[in-house]
């Protein structure tokens, strides 16, 4: 999954940076928790988005689906919008 590769490349270093900053100033516990939550939440949403997109493609390309159902309309919709 691309989201996992992206998280390894960018998310892990962000988490390590957040942890390092907390080690330097542990009085900022709330900021530490918020920043960690942001990174982890984005990762989870990226995995969900990728999984739902894949499932949609599998259903759309399914011979069983094609034999019984026609796709009349396809729209791009976002399940969740998150600004980070």
Helix content: over 70%
Shape: elongated
Element string (H = helix, E = strand): HHH
What Rg, in angstroms, do the CA atoms define? 19 Å
Strand percentage lies at under 5%
The helix/strand class is mainly alpha
The low-confidence parts are none
Overall average pLDDT:
87
Number of helices: 3
The largest β sheet comes out as: none
Distance between the termini: 21 Å
Summarize the structure.
This protein is mostly helical. The protein has helices at residues 2-24, 29-61, 63-68.
Question: Key features?
Answer:
mainly alpha; single chain; 84 residues; 74% helix
Layout of SSEs?
Elements lengths: L1 H23 L4 H33 L1 H6 L16
Helix pairs in contact: 1-2
Structure in words:
With 84 residues, the chain is an all-alpha fold. 74% of the residues lie in helices and 0% in strands. The protein contains 3 helices and no strands. The protein has helices at residues 2-24, 29-61, 63-68. Helix 1 (2-24) packs antiparallel against helix 2 (29-61). The chain is elongated, with a radius of gyration of 19 Å.
């Amino acid at each position: 999954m691309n989201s996992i590769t992206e998280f390894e490349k960018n998310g892990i270093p962000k988490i390590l940076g957040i942890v390092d900053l907390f080690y330097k100033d542990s009085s900022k516990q709330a900021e530490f928790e918020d920043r960690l939550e942001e990174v982890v939440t984005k990762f989870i949403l990226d995995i969900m988005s990728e999984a739902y997109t894949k499932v949609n493609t599998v259903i759309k390309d399914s011979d069983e689906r094609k034999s019984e159902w026609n796709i009349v309309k396809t729209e791009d919709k976002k399940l969740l919008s998150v600004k980070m």
